[in-house]
Amino acid sequence: MKAPASMIGVFAAIALAAAPGAGAADVQTERAEIQKMCQDALAALYKERPELKAQVAKSAGYGCFSSFGFTLLLGGAGGQGLVHNHATNKDTYMNMGQASLGVEIALKEYREVLVFKDRNTLEKFVDSGWEFSGGGGASAALQGKGGALEQTSAATEAIAIYPIARTGVSAGGSAAGRKYWRAQDLN
After folding, report:
1. Contact 125, 63 (CB under 8 A)
2. What are 44-85's pLDDT values in tens digits?
């Protein structure tokens, strides 16, 4: 079976988004873009759920990730983000990749905020990477406007995950594996 050109374009865009930067100026620009994305994601989260601002402030730290993906029974997504450690006031830049399989149709750009409830979990996430699985729901959004009902389940209670649909549509459910790892070129 031959893959449609649009699917090839989507997977090429995902690969380019995860590709390492070329030089020091590119690294600074990319870091600034990730920091801005994180500020925007936190602002959107606090606007939707103001009570979470206190939870994030009291936590060991938080992570913000932005990704773009496509799913038609089988799918993938990729993106970048950062993890902020409250104790050290240090940001660690990270990559994210996802593969999914299930009865789902989706094309979306989305953001998520992870809140780490303890220091050990945050450090393990940053040092060793992390894998999550599960998820499903339905959403429709265009340039941040629209509705979403999404749920993500994690293998741990030590991290709260708050998905924020940004642009795109999705419906269905899938089993997904998500992996996070340090962005060597940005740290």
Report:
1. yes
2. 999 999 999 999 999 999 999 998 877 777 778 889 999 999
CA angle at 31 for the pair 133 and 145, rounded to the nearest 5°: 60
Q: Can you give the pLDDT at residue 109?
A: 76
157 occurs within a structural domain = yes
Residue 161: how many other CB atoms lie within 10 Å: 19
Q: Is the pLDDT of residue 101 over 60?
A: yes
Query: Is 103 part of any domain?
Result: yes
Quick one: residue 150, left, alpha or beta (phi over 0 = left, psi -120 to 50 = alpha)? beta
Please tell me whether residue 176 adopts helix, strand or coil conformation. Answer: strand
Classify residue 60: in a domain, yes or no.
Answer: yes
Phi, psi of 58 (to 5 degrees): -85, -10
What is the tally of helices (H) and strands (E) in the chain?
Answer: 4, 6
Q: Which domain holds residue 18?
A: 5-182
**Shortest CA distance to 183 belongs to which of 60, 10, 65, 56?**
65
Residue 187: inside a domain: no
Query: Quick check: helix, strand or coil at residue 68?
Result: strand
The total number of structural domains that make up the chain = 1
pTM above 0.85, yes or no: no
What pLDDT does 72 receive?
A: 73
Rounded CA separation 157/107 (Å): 28
Least confident stretch, 41-55, 105-119, 162-176: 162-176
